[in-house]
Amino acid sequence: MHTLHNIKKWSGLLALGLTLSFGLQAKDSPQSKTTTENNTLLAEWSGPYGGVPAFDKMKLEDVIPAFEVAMTENLADYDKIANNNEPATFENTIVAMEKAGEKLNRAGVYFGIWGANLSSPEVRKLQMELAPKFSEMRSKISQNKKLFARIKNVYEDSLKTPLESDQQRLVKTTYESFAMNGADLSPEKQKRYAEINKELSSMYTQFANNVLHDEEGYITYLNKDQLGGLPDSFIKSAAKVAENNGKEGQYAVTNTRSSMDPFLTYSTERELRKQVWNNYYSRGDNGDEYDNNDLIKQILKLRRERVELLGHENYAEWRLQNRMAKTPENAMNLMEAVWPAAIARVKEEVADMQAVADSLGDEITIKPWDYRYYAEKVRMDKYALDSNEVKQYLQLDNLREAMFYVAGKLFNFDFKPVKEGTVPVFHEDVKVWEVNDKTTGELVGLWYLDPFARPGKRSGAWATSYRSHSTFDGPKNVLSSNNSNFIKPAPGESVLVSWDDATTFFHEFGHALHFLSSNVRYPSLNGGVRDYTEFQSQLLERWLSTDEVINKYLKHHETGEVIPDELIAKIKKASTFNQGFATTEYLASALMDMKLHLADPDTLDVDKFERETLSALGMPDELVMRHRTPHFGHVFSGEGYATAYYGYMWADVLTADAAEAFQEAPGGFYDEEMAAKLVNYLFAPRNAMDPAEAYRKFRGRDAKIDALMRDRGFAEPKESTEKDKKAD
Asked: How far is CA 690 from CA 61, 324, 527, 533, in A?
């Protein structure tokens, strides 16, 4: 079921493998004779829970014939709508579009698993060689003059005679999507617009695959005498990874954040820290065939040319017109309001770290590969807080149960493990839970968890849905998933994670709850506004540190003892510790994203621009952007976060403000009245309600930046106007 919103989303996430991509030309595949009749990727989902994907039966050779059929049928669905001789109505045009492309959706779910969770050279070749076909299909739909005329008629009629609120929003977002993507251009401009999209689709896939190559290709192997400072849990996991890679007796530091971060925090081997740091932050920037710098320039040039066809000066102006920020200036104003306080805090943090290094007689000047290591020593010195001690109480299974507890209290959800073998999975690590309403027993959906890192799985953590909730053609229960990259433990060992990783686990579960709590009629309204969609998940992070979660689930993995009050007090006291680092590395990436898209791409030297921009911003020498430009997948492996990475900060303004609402409530973070507002206004509507209106219904007013500044321990702005304070 797809309107243009779904199609756009798929193409934007194409290279990340989260969604739809296409395969080799049929002539290149000896297995391409697979018939469509027995093609798992096309078949309706059967089995329990309203039908589930047959992940255990999917075959890569089915990709080509599946998408040949699915794309053809999808285009036919839209052609039928466009050529309808009846006057355009909401039902025969907009609702008909919601029903289009069922097979395409099913095939996309399967190939999304290969791209994100089970990648391989064969999968990457599939993505690279036929990604343009998807772009061509999308262009045929978005540039269909007859189809757009019908959409425009429905839109104009709705302005005279308003529909129901969710229908009105669906019509508005559909019309805007088509208009923003060239539906009204001349045939000549439409032709060039489609050519640009086709070129970009290949470039996005190439960018992502280049980064994945460098993540898989740069592994640091250690000997036993190079393990100084590393926790036992890390050593055991590193040994297992090395053994799996044929390096028994050694220890592997993989080129992913989940491996890099703890190594840089604890390793006493400074030269190895530098090597691991260089490997990670040089992804896509090694001057070889996988280098992304020239590719980025080409992407930026094509994006600029495309929006100029629509009459816009730059990509950022075009992209933000229907976001909460509305303009690049508003987004920049928010970031620039926080930036000075962030880099000022970094100077304080570096001074503290340098003092510790000097007191230890280390005779070094703090460099980026030292930041985490000495920050940890400062944490222990100032707050007597040992991160490794905290990890002993952050056992992955307990954290999962803590998330279920929060979901039960706030959303009235009950999670029960599904018996193994009942629901097909794509890897033995994946587990599945049934989600029901605690009061009625009604099925809400399923939750899949793929927790561990492995070759072929993209780095980081993310959530996705295999089936979204909708009711317009019968209720659909939700199939949601969370995906992480925790290091798989040695047999019999517990998975212990850092406080930051635990926070991320809750964050991504917030996205899953957003899927599961959806209460919308039309599939396209399950999407969201980019600078709003991170808000709900960021807010859920706050429940990790509530007393209920602490007392019930933060228990020592060996003794079962609840984390001591004094350790929790240290954690809370240190809650704003290292906020200079965290805020600056993020904001540097967000500012770079915006500035790159405002710059003239014709004269751009990407590497030089990054250096000069950071210098002009006063970026501290002791740290780098969270995502350096050559591996900034959020922005260059698709368009989901292009000129929108600021959205995390925008959402964080809402998060801090909403968290204070819970703090002020009689029942605190588990206040029943606030929980009901949380679900009814912030989670259930998805994109069926304007985000600014939804937040005002929850809070009674617009959000203000003050709470964010308090939350991060930064001084509030000395002078703040209503314009500065408002987040929407």
From this structure: 42, 9, 12, 12
* Side-chain-side CA neighbours of residue 284 (13 Å): 25
CATH 1.10.1370.40 for the 4-142+144-184 domain, yes or no: yes
CA angle 723, 727, 728 (to 5 degrees): 90
**How much is the pLDDT for 35?**
56
What per-residue confidence (pLDDT) applies to 691? 94
Residue closest to 418 by CA, chosen among 79, 52, 16: 52
Whether the Cβ atoms of residue 382 and residue 273 lie closer than 8 Å to each other? no
Contacts of 498 (CB under 8 A, 6+ apart): 261, 262, 387, 390, 391, 394
Distance separating alpha carbons of residues 611 and 624, to the nearest angstrom: 10
Cα 378 to the center of its chain, rounded Å = 31
Q: Cβ of 381: how many Cβ atoms within 10 Å?
A: 15
Instruction: Please work out, in degrees rounded to the nearest 5, the angle formed at the alpha carbon of residue 216 by the alpha carbons of 210 and 219.
Output: 130
* Residue ranges with strand state E in 374-472: 413-417, 431-437, 443-452, 462-467
Level-2 CATH architecture, domain 393-563: Orthogonal Bundle (1.10)
Query: Contact, 675 vs 408, CB < 8 A?
Result: no
Q: Tally the residues of the chain.
A: 728
Residue-range domain boundaries for the chain: 4-142+144-184, 218-281, 393-563
258: its two tokens: 């989940």
d(CA 400, CA 406): 10
- Nearest of 647, 661, 651 to residue 701 by alpha carbon: 661
Q: What is the separation of C-alpha 195 from the centre of its chain, rounded to a whole number of angstroms?
A: 28
3-class secondary structure per residue, 532-557: HHHHHHHHHHHHHHCHHHHHHHCECC
**pLDDT value for 555:** 97
Q: What is the dihedral of CA 33, 35, 36, 40, to 10 degrees?
A: -90
Phi, psi of 285 (to 5 degrees): -140, 45
Question: Which residues of the chain register pLDDT less than 50?
Answer: 1-34, 717-728
